[in-house]
TrEMBL record:
Residues 4-53, 62-146 form the Nitroreductase domain. InterPro entries: Nitroreductase (IPR029479), Nitroreductase-like (IPR000415), Nitroreductase/BluB (IPR050627). Pfam families: Nitroreductase (PF00881). This is NADH dehydrogenase. Keywords: Flavoprotein, FMN, Oxidoreductase. The keyword Flavoprotein applies. One of its GO terms (molecular function) is oxidoreductase activity.
Amino acid sequence: MEAILKRRSIRKYTKQDVSEQDVQSILKAAMSAPSAGNQQPWHFIVIRKRSILNEIPKIHPYSNMMKDAPLAIVVCGDPTIERYKGYWVQDCSAAIQNILIAVEDLGLGAVWVGIYPEESAKAEDFRKLLNIPEHVIPLAVIPIGHPAETKPPADRYNDARVHSDTW
């Protein structure tokens, strides 16, 4: 619960690298997410190459933090392996949430930078940059690093959004 309640979107990172062990832990958490019929329609692109990280802000207007992040993970969905059509977005979103919680638990920082559903140019640019097959859809890119900023936990509980039995 602590990692869930403390998790915040971190957009500033130190120059310190993220260990391969931490990356493996993050990916294990991602792949432990629930998925419809256990179809697991996800693919993950781990980017450490500085030249690629620096290209991302040129194709995504809300990703300037990539310039400082030591790595990013692009979460993609493959609708062609779905047994239950249309659930890839939910499945991959659950994987992203697990990534964000794992990152917090490891003392790192991250932020969810959405790509899909803006299928247009943004997704195509990611496909070209990362050589993503045409049938695979990039859902989000998540910069990850050691936080260079501190944010207090946010109490987002809102009793007005809770309904008992009926609206």
